[in-house]
Specification:
It is a single chain. By secondary structure, the protein is mostly helical. The protein contains 8 helices and no strands. The radius of gyration is 20 Å and the shape is globular.
Length: 172
């Protein structure tokens, strides 16, 4: 929403009213689900489920506690705790999240020690800027961009940016 970057009392009141309205219309579980689906997770990945696939090659239900802790850390600050570009910071954040899990009795002390001793287990970074060498895939992408421009009434660069963020499933 425009003007949301200003630090004013008016903006804060608008945020409070939006939050109140949202809580009246939706359950906390629904709000959390929407938030987790739109959360930027770094490397053009949006949403916690896509981040699980991107960083671990797993679904959310397949993640271990230490992997979940990595995603919690990345969600906090995707640039600062990115496991590919800042593995040490990511590891420290993961361990702080695991400590919080121990303190809230999600995991016990022995599990905490065992999980903190594990190295980061993320997949190697995939080069998302690599060229597509398939005329078919390039043609499909061009059609998708064209359709996005027409249907959403957005510019070509906006369509490129939207596609780069991911979250689309294309069936041909």
């Amino acid at each position: 929403i425009s003007g949301d970057s200003e630090y004013t009392v008016k903006r804060k009141l608008a945020e409070i009213l939006r939050a109140y309205h949202m809580e009246q219309m939706h359950s906390k579980e629904e709000i959390l689900e929407v938030y987790l689906n739109i959360l930027p997770m770094g490397e053009n990945t949006v949403g916690i489920a896509l981040a699980a696939e991107h960083y671990f090659g797993k679904t959310l239900s397949e993640l271990s506690y230490d992997e979940i802790a990595v995603l919690v850390g990345v969600a906090n600050a995707p640039g600062r705790y990115n496991p590919h570009t800042a593995p040490e910071a990511c590891l420290q954040k993961r361990n702080r999240v695991l400590y919080a899990m121990k303190e809230t009795n999600v995991i016990d002390g022995n599990t905490y020690e065992e999980l903190c001793a594990r190295p980061l287990s993320v997949l190697a970074k995939v080069d998302t800027k690599a060229e597509i060498h398939s005329w078919f895939a390039e043609t499909v992408l061009e059609e998708i961009k064209s359709d996005l421009c027409t249907q959403k009434k957005i510019s070509r660069s906006a369509a490129d940016a939207l596609l780069a963020k991911g979250g689309f499933s294309v069936y041909t």
